[in-house]
Here is the input.
Amino acid sequence: MKNNLNFGTLIEKDIDKHHFDIGTKFQKLVWNEIAKIPKGKILTYEQLALKINRPLSIRAVANACGKNPYAPKIPCHRVVRKDGSLGGYSAKGGINRKKKMLENEGHKFVKDKIIF
Here is the structure.
């Protein structure tokens, strides 16, 4: 499947593993974990870092999310800051699209912060 921004090709191998034709080993690790986040659920960047056994790599995880060329198929919009703010969204539509996608998945906001 070619993504809508033509950055790379994503081939689903199974529910938990994807083949990414671009990205660093670390980015691919992060993107595979993001792919496991079900619709309607969210993780913080910190929780995601813990899930990949890199508890001190919160900022690197956030950067990998920002480099995700497979959005929204790999749903980085489901990763937010621990204070409830959205962080960023580098795909088309930016932060406004991220918020809209989360609202469409049932999440509520107060003053632009997601309610956990």
